[in-house]
Amino acid sequence: MKSSYSLIILLLLTSAISLISAHEKTNVEFIRTSCGLTTYPTLCFKSLSARAGAIQTSPKLLAQTALSVALDTTRTTSSSMVKLSKKHGMTPLEVAAMKDCLELLSDSLYELQRSLHEMNQPGSKDSRLVMRDIQTWVSSAMTDEDTCTEGFKNDLKMESVVRGKIVKAAHLTSNALALINSYASLSR
Fold this sequence. Notes:
By secondary structure, the chain is mainly alpha-helical.
């Protein structure tokens, strides 16, 4: 009798684990498929797949999470750029370009924070208008990040250093915008 209870419990546990595994696989495939719509699908999948359990198969949670990842990365990038700006030996043009870049990153952070805040708000009087605002803000953040390197066009070495720091944040922001656009198209 005792062995039959053990067998039943073992079967139930095995079934539960299989069900959880299948559900997790569905969540991961949802992320993989959704990331296929982005400009940087490999980066998208790598940055979001570890959060598959929280995202599940929700386009809204996927867009929010992508936005959160972009915000966190942009925040880290901004801190890295502040440290780089304190490096001695920069020319006056490099100092001016760095100041502009830091201002653009600050603007980008504000736009991403504002967008994430709005996406986290429950219900809205006009959700289409809010989504258009979010799309505009994230697009602007992406432009700010891309524009950051323009002041270094005459200094290829410094431009390369800055681009190396900015590129991941810009690509994640691009991916977030693509997933937000996808979610917005479903919300109409």
